[in-house]
Amino acid sequence: MNAGALPIIRVQNLEKVYPGNVHAVRGVSFEVRPKQVVAIIGSSGSGKSTVLRCINRLIEPTEGEIYLEEVKINDSKTDINKIRSEIGMVFQSFELFAHLRVLENVTLGLRKVRGYSRAEANEIARGVLEKVDMLDKLEAFPGQISGGQMQRVAIARALAMNPKVMLFDEPTSALDPELIGSVLESIKALVNEGMTMIIVTHEIGFAREVSDWILYMDHGAVVEEGPPSMLDAPKTERMQQFLGQILDG
Questions:
Q1: Exposed, middle or buried by CB within 10 Å (0-12, 13-18, 19+), for 49?
Q2: Could you give the number of structural domains in the chain?
Q3: Is residue 237 in some structural domain?
Q4: Would residue 230 count as lying in a domain?
């Protein structure tokens, strides 16, 4: 973690209210610095994924400001496609194109957004697929590989764009238990390489292991935050109950 560097992501007083006065995010503020890993934990419906989707402008915030370095992301004048090419996002449901082979899924953004030739894109794609141990599945279609393998391809696709920060939205929640480990190992390898990340996860042990800072959200607000050691001695009753339910489960 580079404490002295300027933040790559800065979220200030983020609010998201859906129609019907559903207050999904309430006054959330935090920063992510280069090579830092921030984990966001909390119960389902606590606003964790909404925060990530606001950062990537998949959802428009109701109030507040989000910056990628010095660029205000939620500004109508900001080139959102450029922003998205610099913020890699991995979804819980993979979001691969079923009609494209693994290699084509990874090279599509490189060719369409970055403007690389097919040969250049293929070379980059092979490199990132090797990182996630998927080089032997280049010609497979998503329907021919497991969920864990699809998620690793999705990670490779995001990595191929050489993003400044990676967002992971519950990357293991759609996987069978025996497939989770390989995906977590791929993410750990990126942590070890110094990739800047925000990870929304329900894998508390994983959050403890890889993160520099943890945010605990409940009912749209950050209730508690701190280093991973905070998990050993939560200050609020809400977080104590949350961790107790997970450990009991």
A1: buried
A2: 1
A3: yes
A4: yes
Strand partners, 40: 200, 215
pLDDT digits (tens, 9 = 90+) for 143-189: 999 999 999 999 999 999 999 999 999 988 888 888 888 889 999 99
DSSP secondary structure code for residue 59 in this structure: S
Query: Is 104 domain-assigned?
Result: no
| Nearest CA-CA partner of 183 in 131, 107, 106 | 131
Closest residue by Cα to residue 228 from 203, 206, 211, 246: 211
Describe the crossing of helices 102-112 and 147-160 by its angle, rounded to 10 degrees: 20
Helices assigned H by DSSP within 113-169: 118-131, 147-160
CB 63 within 8 A of CB 25: no
- Which pTM does this prediction carry? 0.93
pLDDT digit string, tens, across residues 8-51: 999 999 999 999 999 999 999 999 999 999 999 999 999 999 99
Domain that holds residue 61: 9-96+165-248
- Token readout for 121 is 């894109």
- CATH of residue 39: 3.40.50.300
Residue 155 belongs to some domain of the structure? no
Helix axes 147-160, 177-192, angle to 10 degrees: 20
* Residue 8 near residue 164 (C-beta atoms within 8 A): yes
Residue 138 dihedral angles phi and psi, to the nearest 5°: -55, -40
Give the tokens for residue 15: 């609010």
Number of H helices, E strands in the chain: 8, 10
Give the Cα separation of 79 and 72 in Å (integer).
10
Calpha distance 204→157 (Å, rounded)? 26
